[in-house]
Design goal:
4 helices; Dihydrofolate Reductase, subunit A; 3-stranded antiparallel β-sheet; 36% strand; alpha/beta; 8-stranded mixed β-sheet; 160 residues
């Protein structure tokens, strides 16, 4: 299964200046639980936004830079090549950024979205989810609390 996973604001904002716009510890835990042990596919800028490679995951980085190198990562120049490097019967996670999400929508079987209930100014946005193609199969709401400034909802979409 090909799964796109993202935290997305109500106005589809993803990030600004190659950084997240919010801090949601429970969402980080969910991301880790879902993606651990799997191949994660991302653009170069997303990879470079991490302080270090994420443990217990195989990183596949998409870049146009033919000389780009990153230790213990697979470097490719297209989403198709990234998917070809993944085990056929294993879950594969597309984790960003904005351009990679746009490309990934045509391949994805499922979207795991954390919808952050706030509008943010951003320079990267998630593509519109076409409800003629996708339907929500599960939701789980979380109110703001001492660790989470914003309310958010986990939403799982499946392709119709």
């Amino acid at each position: 299964m090909i799964i796109m996973i993202a935290a997305v604001a109500d106005n589809n904002a993803l990030g600004k200046n190659n950084d997240l716009l919010w801090h949601l510890p429970d969402d980080f835990k969910r991301f880790k639980a879902l993606t651990s042990g799997h191949h994660i596919i991302m653009g170069r800028k997303t990879f470079e936004s991490f302080p270090k490679p994420l443990p217990n995951r195989k990183h596949i980085i998409i870049t146009r830079d033919k000389k780009y190198e990153a230790n213990d990562c697979i470097i490719v120049d297209s989403l198709e090549k990234a998917l070809d490097h993944c085990p056929e019967n294993a879950d594969k996670y597309i984790i960003g950024g904005g351009e990679i999400y746009k490309l990934g929508l045509q391949y994805a079987d499922q979207l795991d979205i954390t919808r952050v209930h706030h509008d943010f100014e951003a320079d990267v946005y998630f593509p519109e989810i076409d409800l003629n193609i996708w339907k929500i199969s599960a939701t789980e709401y979380h109110a703001p609390d001492e660790k989470h400034q914003y309310a958010f909802t986990y939403q799982t979409y499946i392709r119709i």
